[in-house]
Design goal:
heterodimer; A: 319 residues; alpha+beta; Immunoglobulin-like; five-stranded mixed beta sheet; 37% strand; disordered N terminus; disordered C terminus; B: 500 residues; mainly alpha; Growth Hormone, Chain: A; 74% helix; globular; cell membrane (chain B); transmembrane (chain B); symport (chain B)
Chain lengths: 319, 500
Amino acid sequence: MTTQDSSQPEVNFVTKTQVGSESSGPNFSVQELKPGGKENSRSVSEHEIVLIGASLEKKISLPSPTKVDLTCKLDDSSRLKDPQVTWKKGSETISHTSKTQNSWTIQVTVSDSSQLGSYTCILKAEEEISATFHLQVPKLEGKEKPVITYERDKAVMVCKTEYNPKAWTWYLANGTELVPIDRILRTDKFQIKRPSPSVNRLEILKLTKQDGGVYLCEATFELGNSQIKFELKVLSIWAPLMPFIAIVAEVAILFTAIVLYEVYSKRKGKVSQKTLLRHSSSSRQRSKSGSLKGDLTNRSGNYRKAMMYHKEDVCSYGF
Amino acid sequence: MPAPTQAGRAPGPPDGGWGWVVVFGAFISIGFAYAFPKGLAIFFKEIQNFFGTSYSEIAWISSIMLATTYGAGPISSILVNRYGSRPVVMFGGLLCGVGMISAAFCTSILQLYICVGFITGFGLALNLQPSVIIIGKYFLKRRPIANGLAMAGSPVMLCTLAPLNQFLFDNFGWRGSFLILGAILLNCCVAGALFRPIGAGTALAKTPVNEEGKDALKGKITEDGPMEKKTEEEEGKDCFEKVNQYLDFSLFKHRGFLIYLIGNVLMFLGFFAPIVFLAPYAKHTGIDEYSAAFLLSILAVVDMVARPATGIVANSRWVRPRIQYFFSFAIAFNGACHLLCPLASSYTGLLVYSSFFGLAFGMVCAMLFETLMDLVGAARFTSAVGLVTIAECCTILLGPPIGGILIDTFGDYKYMFIKCGAVMVLAGTFLFIMNYYNYRMLAKEEKERKKKEEHLKSVRTENEGKKNWNKDSTQDGPELEPLRENGEGVKKEMNGTNEV
């Protein structure tokens, strides 16, 4: 009656959550778990929460009917001693077994969606702490932020999950109404592809502004459906073009400014050259001898170095 | 050997003035060249979904871009030798812009490889090399500081581009973002416009009138360059042609260059992998995504500060003559950080590691090109940097995949860190020992040259001048030789504190 789906991935592990500090308030550490904790011969997955001083939660994804063992364990270092233990689902109490001292287990047979939900073990002694297991259908992965596309381009929305659902459906949100896209039989506009059993793609071609809106991806598992929303925004080509033109204008302006400044300073240099030439005709001889040390700036040390430096530049050696 | 009679016109590298503007331009240019490929990673998931490809096909975009940026180094060098830095950078900026703009209209992953990978990658290569080269032309005394400041562009740009890319992506999707990024890359042209030509290769035959006038002026470099080339150019034309046509392959006989090449090629095997895997490693140890991203931010911030600081330290009196030792130390320090990383298991431990890693990374990057300039001199640096980058290209591309293989095989990140640490410590030690040997050989050659000069001086007449244009040595090591004058101490000259 309850068989584990053989096509499920065999990634199984038990993770023990331990609370680092014993804070006064509830300290929730929530983890997503794949099903199948520890595999034993009867294909029952086991999940365990180890409590020290505060309450914990754990999410467990179940794609298909299975049996799960949920265990609450009290760590030896905890202050609570010999607590009174109750397992509850909502308001309903479930009977449990105690495999070892300080650990209490229930076995849940999940055959349809009514058995999904939150199962809590409550330990009451000097204080009350609890551990909650959330059994749910696997979540879908999409894109939380809006998908931005452009007119006449194509939009791609990729919906992923970790398991293989039985079926995928895409919906278009028209106001409050959800229209399945399969019914809109326009293969030139909508294309649904399934590159792998756990991934589904919706491609919308030849976009127009009206195509923007909310789309829904739904995956059907044996135990129920899981949904995720995508928001599509269709922009016109002018949207990025405005900043683009602004930046190109800025580049052009800066470039022109730099070139103009250079031309201006060149001209200034030439003017002052001419004036100096008129005055320095007598010093022409002096300049030729190369003893310019005094004429140039006070960086004569650099000057000598520089001369040698330029000797290198002329590459007159080493070849 | 031609002895220019008009030597002494050249005012030399200004070490300031317009040079700082050039540093700013290089800051922008280098920043884009290094940070842009990293910043693109944000778009990859969406592009992967859009084209329905696997992750490795998308990762090729990054690899092609990186390979082209480093592999096109020699082409960049040849172009700079021929045309000077400025036109090359402007053309590079234009290419980048065109590449990204056309990428916005791509309809297949292959087109993306070409537009983003090749065209933009080539444009970035044309940005990177000339920017580094022109710093060597504008600075000598304060070159390490200038290098440190310019290289600081990389972390600053990365810190700016990462949130900017995210913002663009959220508002415009990947196509619109590529369009706008193309426009932003055009700013490299603006940076290029700031690179006024200076120094050898740009001098044209000027009339004696101009020369006279310039001599009388203060030793300021205008865009016309130094004037003494007039006679020298005619005599030195053959070698100029050589330089302009080919890449300077004689560098492979240069001892210092070979040491640098081998040491660096080894170092790059373990240089980038830790950054690539830092965030995944953090997540693997149980840290959440935002804190893992914060580690990288810490790294970038420390890096940002470390680069100019290293430049200042490297410029000081004590370090500059021994800058090669400082560089080897920085590499070994980097390696030591990685070796100690597996010991850090908590979040605070990783924070400490990130800070030290940022410091070490900044130190190495700031001195990466400075040490090469120091070894081969500014003239041959153009070709040297091209040859070095194409050699590094292979190991840079191999580093992260090898790290990835180690992680996948052993299922543990620590072997990757140990590998990177060991490789870098090895590289640092190698460079240290070989540079010690190199310094000794250079000192020996110095002594021999001094002896020769004194001998020649006693033979030569006074008229031929005080300038010793003795260019016998083919091992034209660091600026030790050119900076020497009148028997002054080699080291004193090198660190440029010989200020009057």
